[in-house]
Write a structure and sequence with these properties.
Elements: E1 38-39, H1 45-50, H2 53-66, E2 71-78, E3 81-92, E4 97-98, E5 105-106, H3 112-124, H4 156-160, H5 181-189, H6 206-220, H7 224-233, E6 257-260, E7 263-266, E8 285-286, H8 288-299, H9 315-321, E9 326-331, E10 344-348, E11 353-357, E12 362-370, E13 373-380, E14 385-391, H10 398-412, E15 419-420, H11 424-436, H12 453-456, H13 459-473, E16 476-479, E17 483-486, E18 489-496, E19 500-507, E20 515-523
Antiparallel strand pairs: 1-15, 2-3, 2-14, 3-4, 5-8, 6-7, 9-10, 10-11, 11-12, 12-13, 13-14, 16-18, 17-18, 18-19, 19-20
Helix pairs in contact: 2-10, 3-6, 3-7
Length: 527
């Protein structure tokens, strides 16, 4: 499947514990991290995004026109809801059937994350392990001849992260969609040509995901299509989503086209064989209305929280899908659609891709491409937003325009990532630290420092540095709240008359946590 996978996962912070305030000595309580809260700092955030709907529409209309896209469907998901959707052109050029948000497009390699999610569900049920050799579930793999004698057996995790050692197989893989499992097993019997031993390199492989489809079938006892339908689509309300185009009503099916010789030429749609596994890598057919539900489910996995966990798979497994398991790229001169240069690094997750840019923003995404179709979805969980777009033109590069849309929204609406409430223990230790500064009186008897602290930080040096900075700051105007890096690490600002002071501190893994590291520095006032 021709998939331009620019990607992304994300460091999120869990923040809120219950710990008693103490004065001078440590409280006889335990560290409780059961509650955590997060919110977006801008109360008008949603309204600012709504004002950009016409801008989004124009970006996609111009892109469709300049790239000869017969039809496009797209949707914007914010805070777990499909808040905006749009449609351009036709699903059937000859019959002039207009695209709608319920039109069903083949989404190609965007199918891969559903296979990965199904594998994780089976793992969570105790029916397999990701580091099991794949031959335990597909016996025909037992006799593979690897390129070196010291090569490990292919594992399920290798297949999920494009690390099995198979060669990149676009566009060969596109044409295997209708093959049966018998043909797949016959193919394995003739031996696979490897480009690398398993486990040492990233190389995009549709074959790997076809094998995952077969594993789902063998382990679950039902065809992978049925397993995914029953356990993922139906719980998410994806009622018309399917793998086989013959199951789609004529007025809902998007036909695929190739732009050639200055005209659209219709592509032949490939069947998804009921007794075949190749469709797991790219046969899915879905609509914006229904795929939006899937995107929302991914977004609501962040941040970790205590809400009822009753999705198709555990939220922790969704977050596991977003983890950058296999690094695959670094481009220090990456040029964003708006023209600015900002380096990126990328990796492959489980049926998804991960990207982090030079500003620290992270993206989770996957593209899809087949003869007649191009698609992509991209989410930014720490910003609570995501965009999906489907087009019915061969290998339409929708990743570029999706990135442009998200970049435009963040820039014009001045969106900020979600902020987390500092844990009670972090605020408590901050308050205790402030009381002993700048003289560090009775600090060694206070009970708030870990055993390493004073051997690592001589008390005379602590006093000297703090007194110098406090003198330089002048009268203290205010002490700001902790800016949490996570539940046990953060910084805060002390606002002085002449200059400001920043204090950074880290707590230990003890229960209750104690201060193990501390740094203090001047932060000049902003003019």
């Amino acid at each position: 499947m021709r998939a331009l996978v620019f990607f992304l996962t994300i460091f999120f912070i869990s923040c809120q514990e219950d710990h008693a305030h103490i004065e001078g000595k440590i409280a006889p309580t335990t560290f409780d991290s059961s509650n955590q809260t997060a919110s977006f700092p801008d109360a008008s955030r949603m309204e600012k995004i709504r004002q950009l709907f016409p801008v989004i529409d124009k970006i996609l209309k111009d892109y469709a026109d300049s790239n000869h896209l017969p039809g496009v469907a797209y949707g914007l998901v914010v805070d777990g809801k499909l808040v905006h959707k749009g449609n351009i052109g036709y699903t059937d050029i000859d019959k002039k059937i207009p695209v709608t948000s319920s039109s069903l497009f083949r989404i190609a390699s965007m199918s891969k994350s559903f296979a990965a999610m199904a594998i994780l569900r089976l793992r969570d049920e105790g029916k397999l392990d990701l580091d099991d050799p794949a031959y335990l579930y597909i016996p025909e793999l037992k006799n593979l001849k690897y390129p070196t004698l010291d090569a490990p057996h292919i594992t399920i995790r290798h297949l999920m992260t494009h690390g099995a050692g198979f060669p990149e197989d676009n566009p060969w893989g596109d044409r295997q969609l209708a093959d049966t499992d018998k043909e797949l097993m016959d193919f394995l019997g003739k031996q696979i040509s490897f480009s690398n031993p398993p486990g040492i390199a990233y190389e995009y492989s549709n074959l790997g995901f076809a094998l995952l489809g077969k594993i789902i079938t063998n382990v679950s006892g039902m065809q992978y299509q049925e397993y995914i339908k029953k356990n993922i689509w139906e719980p998410l309300g994806m009622k018309t989503t399917t793998y086989e185009y013959a199951d789609v009503a004529a007025d809902k099916l998007a036909h695929g086209y190739r732009w050639l010789n200055n005209k659209w030429n219709e592509e032949v749609l490939l069947h998804d064989t009921k007794d075949g596994s190749w469709g797991a890598m790219g046969a899915m057919i879905s609509s914006i209305d229904e795929f939006g539900n899937y995107m929302a489910f991914h977004l609501t996995a962040w941040p970790p929280n205590n809400a009822k966990d009753d999705g198709p798979v555990k939220r922790s497994s969704v977050r596991e899908m977003h983890h950058p398991w296999r690094w695959n790229g670094f481009n220090p001169n990456y040029r964003f659609p708006g023209g600015r240069t900002c380096g990126i690094t990328s990796a492959y997750c489980y049926g998804l891709g991960w990207m982090k840019d030079c500003e620290g923003k992270t993206y989770i995404a996957h593209s899809g491409g087949l003869p007649g179709f191009g698609s992509q979805w991209r989410i930014m969980p720490e910003y609570g937003i995501g965009i999906v777009s489907f087009a019915n033109r061969t290998y339409a590069p929708m990743g570029f325009v999706n990135l442009k849309i998200l970049d435009t929204i963040i820039r014009i609406a001045d969106l900020k990532p979600m902020q987390f409430t500092p844990s009670k223990i972090l605020e408590q230790r901050k308050n205790e630290l402030v009381k002993i500064l700048p003289d560090w009186n009775n600090a060694q008897q206070s009970g708030i420092f870990a055993e390493n602290f004073f051997p690592d930080n001589p008390i005379d040096s602590l006093k000297k540095h703090a007194r110098e900075l406090y003198t330089k700051a002048g009268s203290i105007i205010s002490v700001k709240a902790v800016n949490p890096e996570n539940q046990l690490r953060g910084s805060f600002l002390i606002e002085g008359e002449k200059t400001n002071i920043e204090i950074y501190f880290t707590l230990s893994p003890e229960n209750p946590p104690l201060i193990q590291e501390y740094h203090i520095r001047e932060v000049p006032k902003q003019n």
